[in-house]
Amino acid sequence: MHKLNFRKVSTSLPEINKKKIDFFNLNIHNLPPSRNIYFYSNNYSVPIKKYILNKKIQKIILDFENAIELDQINEEGISTFFDTIKIVYKEIGKVVLVALIIFMFSRQFFQNYQVSGMSMEPTFYNNDLIFVNKLVQKSIPMKWIPFFESERWYIRENIKAGDSVVFKYGSKNVEKFLVKRVVAVAGQTVEYQNGIVKVDGKIIQKLDTNNNYIKLTSEFKKMIVPERSIFVLGDNVYNSFDSRFWGFIKTYQVYGKTEFIYWPKDRMGKIEHSVQYDLGK
């Protein structure tokens, strides 16, 4: 708020007449661009309604229709301050809202996870931070729709043998996310006997049967991977809780395919996908 002194008054200010406009000849070289400038006379503050600019300001037209008493000035100053705060918070709110929309939209395509444990070493180590591509698999439960033939509507199915994927495992009361390697998909054959893992008759893992951990796993003869199912193993097969214990995983349990390690810095990089042969031997 700027207080300007009158040099010459063209007419004396009578008691405020809301319909009357008085003109003042001012010796002012610069006028701030804001219209929050007030002229003080007697007990009133009169705001600018319009001003005429030449090389030097010659006249300022005052708006007496909006004149306020001087004892209201401090209150108005406080209101202006709070109005400024409101504007700042409003702009911050817009930025936060846009960021939130972008965040929620991006979560439909990518998700970050933290690796826990050693079952995927040396591909992933404990506490690695990874990005997962959620575009490879997407399905929607359809049980709630009467007469719908399938329990789920599969929108995208692009899981391949060799992919390392994140999926949900466990009961509703104890659910957790795991990361494992897909070694066989629907239609392929898989068998696990005497420490040997075969996919389509080809040996992909030959393990030490004297290892105490391997002794805990469940062997099975050749089986065909069911429709919309996968068989998964940990890259560290001597320390992995995987399909050797609990069999096949449904593809709708898959949340996405691992794409990128973004922490720690020295391991940052894109993840290569391929079936691991004889890893952990």
Instruction: Write the CATH homologous superfamily of the largest domain.
Output: Umud Fragment, subunit A
The CATH topology annotation of the largest domain reads as Umud Fragment, subunit A
The helix/strand series, from N terminus to C terminus, equals EEEEEEEHEEEEEEEEEHEEHEEE
Task: Give the tally of β-strands.
Answer: 21
Q: Which CATH architecture of the largest domain is right?
A: Ribbon
Low-confidence stretches: 1-46, 48-64, 67-78
Rg, alpha carbons: 37 Å
Question: In which range does the helix fraction lie?
Answer: 10-25%
Count of discrete structural domains: 2
Short characterization:
The protein has about 280 residues and is of the alpha+beta class.
Structural write-up:
Strands 8, 9, 12, 13, 18, 19, 20 and 21 form an eight-stranded antiparallel β-sheet that branches. The protein is globular. 15% of the residues lie in helices and 39% in strands. The protein folds into two domains: 67 residues, no CATH class; 163 residues, Ribbon (Umud Fragment, subunit A), CATH 2.10.109. It is of the alpha+beta class and 281 residues long. Strand 5 and strand 6 form a beta hairpin. The longest helix has 34 residues. The protein contains three helices and 21 strands.
